[in-house]
Specification:
This protein is of the alpha/beta class and about 800 residues long. About 35% of the residues lie in helices and about 15% in strands. The strands form 8 sheets. The chain has a 7-stranded parallel sheet, with helices on both faces. The protein has a 6-stranded parallel sheet with strand order 8-13-12-9-11-10, sandwiched between helices. It has a 5-stranded mixed sheet with strand order 15-14-18-16-17.
């Protein structure tokens, strides 16, 4: 459907719920030639619609020069996990109303059924939390397969518009977001990759990091007098009446006094929202309110420690009109939650958080007159997760505003009158050398990886691990126990998980060991747990109840029913080689065809790199002709013809190669080098499974050849014979594989040449090329499977 004006487009997106034209600032964002980088408007002013609909307009309906400057992926980053689905639901509704084919995906960790990364040429909206998105942008994706890290890294740092919603809640994520923007601009990307930040309390100086300073446009998009025109609907929201008073109690651990006050101030037939600073206090107040005889029947608990399977029905209830309800929540409702309450009760919190919370009271202007009450805290004892100095500053402002109107417009005027500028200390700042170090996804000699938590959330004590429950019986999970799915992952503070695993021998957590292909028990939680790690618990271990994560609960946990069952991937696995029986020549041609189609639609690439990608596709699987790989295929399917060289086994299940850790792509890359192909081609071949990139290393516990002098690495022995391999249009001649590039030093060193390639092209572009070849390979395999 063609839309001639943005007003027409906006009304179509809103559908029957449309209340008029877009706000003037929303129109400016969509129709100005230059993309705005900062949007600073009060809560409730429709920032999400401004950005998402503005991007869709710029991508599909704006002038041609604007369309060419608009990235094809929008990455919408929220500070917290709870109710990300709300943004997804609204976005999908707008797109359906517009009749556009733009998929909306949630990036929250775990296995997904719809693999967005397989369509890098397709306009896509990705919505997730800073933990999941920033960790992927740093090549260390939380709750994702390590072999998938480079794919996400490449696609999220090229041809994307990054949107950071409510950055004042993101801690160390703010300087990281700015540094990534600066480093992309300095190092280079394929396709434009700008960033924008939106908040009611954003200060431009928060983004003045070493590599982004001076790159921020001078103009901040704010509400103008046109937006505040009393004839426009936004005026009602911005002047919605609400008054501020102290609740008259100090927070306590049992929550009883607060619960009594909440029930006392709740008005029947309306909605009351209570925002508390910690999950434990929220659960305590929730339990205390449930015991109150005068409490309404509808009392909801909202926090970040629920599994999506339980949170999704909760979202559905929140989206329904409130008749008589009390919602007990944590700070997760500060961003991305479109709810409105007649009465708001909040803990003392930093001023930026207070402003966001107040915005949930009489949000639309139709739930007034609104009332806001604040709960005082002993800031020396109960400040966490915040700093005492920030709470004291907020207390001063709340005291000054006692009895006053706190509508969005009034708070804006108060800020200007008192010249309130919020500090934002830059602690852990990502530098170029850190980014380059993160490009290498190979664990160090002790098996550890670089921890990116300091760049994602800094020193936040609430840094999480991802936990899921399975029925595994008394024995440990088998190697075929599937990877976790997004709907079963529960966020748990890393400190709470360490304490939980120390409580008794029956509480054992398991993590996937990619080297040994097994779910390994966690023996030393203090040392082994790291942010974002996925941990499998037996259902019998407890730890979850109708309150969400509940360390005190010993009741068995019902596993989430998952239809998509994908085994965890090990270093020696070749999961997409278990499709229909196909020769190397046939599968290679399919990959080349997929890549050719893909390259017609992705962002512009230099012609030289298009040629290198095509050559890499042609040679990517020649190493499957190695006897070790053919052994694995014939073990899986003895009916395969011995006279042919096969790429796919014709069976399902794990392949058992003739050698431990065997990697066919290493054999392919070595053969390509020996055949005289460019190193750039060999690198793309070696890296397309995410297992061999900057170095060729012998794996711990790898079986050496009988000749102990010979070089060996990842199942390849120096001097191995690779037979002649038909690649469908050309062939790889028979040869003996030369592993000398694995040695350090000299012009022939793999690592030296890979580091030079990395320096010449840059990490973002190089990873993007890796992702394109990987996408073509997987797409070809999936199409082949459909024809079985």
């Amino acid at each position: 459907m063609i839309h001639k004006t943005y007003e027409e487009f906006f009304r179509a997106a809103m559908g029957s719920a449309a209340s008029g034209a877009p706000y003037p600032y929303q129109r400016r964002f969509a129709t100005d030639t230059e993309l705005h980088q900062l949007i600073r408007v009060p809560t409730g002013a429709g920032k999400t619609a401004a950005v998402i609909l503005g991007w869709l307009w710029r991508l599909h309906f704006a002038a041609s020069d604007v369309r060419q400057m608009t990235p094809r992926r929008l990455v919408y980053c929220l500070p917290m996990r709870v109710l990300v689905e709300q943004s997804v639901r609204e976005t999908r509704k707008w797109i359906a109303n517009l009749q556009l084919e733009v998929p909306v995906k949630i990036l929250m960790g775990g296995v997904e059924g719809d693999e967005w990364f397989l369509q890098p040429e397709r306009p896509t909206i990705l919505i997730g939390t800073q933990d999941m998105l920033l960790s992927r942008a740093l090549n260390r994706g939380y709750a994702a397969s390590r072999f998938h890290w480079p794919i996400d890294f490449g696609l999220l740092n090229n041809d994307c518009l990054w949107v950071f919603d409510e950055p004042q809640l993101m801690g160390a994520g703010v300087p990281t977001s700015a540094q990534l923007a600066g480093l992309r601009a300095a190092i280079g990307t394929f396709g434009p990759c700008p960033s924008l930040w939106l908040s009611a309390t954003l200060e431009p100086q928060w983004l003045a990091t070493i590599d982004f300073a001076g790159r921020l446009s001078d103009e901040t998009l704010e509400l103008s007098s046109d937006d505040y025109d009393p004839a426009r609907p936004l005026f009602t929201r911005m002047t919605a009446q609400k008054t501020l008073k102290p609740l008259g109690v100090t927070a306590s651990n049992d929550g009883k006094e607060v619960a009594e006050k909440v029930v006392k101030h709740h008005r029947g037939g309306t909605q009351t929202l209570v925002v508390l600073n910690t999950v434990e206090r929220a659960k305590a107040v929730f339990a205390a309110i449930k015991k109150q005889t005068k409490a309404p029947g509808d009392v909801l608990l909202v926090h970040s420690r629920f599994r999506p399977a339980e949170r999704e029905p909760l979202n559905d209830r929140l989206s329904l009109p409130a008749a008589d309800r009390i919602i007990i929540a944590t700070q997760v409702v500060e961003a991305g939650v479109d709810i409105s309450a007649r009465t708001l009760i909040t803990d003392l919190a930093p001023w930026a958080s207070i402003v966001q919370r107040i915005g949930r009271c009489n949000r639309t202007g139709d739930d007034g007159p609104g009332r806001v009450f604040w709960i005082d805290l002993d800031v020396e004892k109960n400040a966490p997760p915040y700093e005492p100095v920030d709470l004291k500053f907020a207390r001063e402002q709340l005291t000054e505003l006692d009895g006053s109107d706190v509508s969005p417009r009034s708070l804006d005027e108060f800020k200007r009158k008192h010249s309130i500028t919020l500090p934002f200390p830059l602690t852990q700042v990502l530098r170029r050398r850190d980014l380059i170090a993160l490009f290498d996804t190979t664990p160090d000699l002790s098996g550890s990886d670089i921890d990116v938590a300091r760049y994602v959330r800094g020193d936040d004590p609430e840094t999480d691990v991802q936990v899921f429950w399975r029925s595994v019986g008394s024995d440990r999970p088998t190697e075929d126990e599937p990877s976790p799915n997004r709907r079963e992952l529960c966020n748990v503070p890393i400190g709470a998980m360490r304490a939980f695993l120390k409580r008794g021998s029956e509480r054992v957590g398991y993590t996937w060991d990619h080297l040994e292909n097994e779910w390994r028990p966690i023996r030393a939680p203090e040392r082994e747990l790291r942010p974002g790690i996925a941990i499998l618990l037996s259902s019998a271990a407890g730890g979850y109840s109708d309150l969400g994560w509940d360390a005190d609960s010993t009741a068995p946990v019902e596993p989430v029913r998952i239809h998509l069952r994908q085994p965890a991937e090990g270093t020696g696995d070749d999961p997409i080689s278990c499709g229909p029986a196909l020769t190397i020549a046939n599968h290679t041609q399919h990959v080349c065809d997929e890549l050719a189609g893909l390259l017609q639609s992705v962002c512009e690439l230099p012609e030289a790199w298009r040629g290198r990608l095509n050559k890499a596709a042609r040679w990517h699987d020649c190493g499957k002709g190695h006897a070790a790989f053919q052994h694995g295929l014939h073990e899986a399917n003895p009916a395969l013809d011995d006279a042919a060289l096969w790429a796919k086994s014709g069976t399902r299940g794990r392949l058992r190669h003739g050698r431990k850790y065997f990697r066919h792509e290493l054999a392919s890359a070595l053969a390509a080098l020996q055949h005289g192909l460019l190193f750039e081609v060999a690198y793309l071949i070696a890296s397309h499974h995410g297992k061999i990139r900057l170095s060729i290393r012998t794996m711990p516990g790898e079986d050496p050849p009988s000749d102990s002098i010979a070089l060996f690495a990842q199942g390849i022995y120096h001097g191995d014979v690779l037979p002649e391999v038909d690649l469908g249009g050309e062939s790889c001649p028979a040869l003996k594989l030369d592993l000398s590039p694995m040695q350090l030093g000299g012009d022939g060193s793999w690592t030296a040449r890979a580091l030079k390639l990395l320096a010449d092209l840059g990490p973002f572009k190089l990873a993007y090329l890796e992702a394109l070849l990987r996408a073509a390979d997987v797409r070809a395999s999936q199409e082949e499977a459909k024809n079985v």
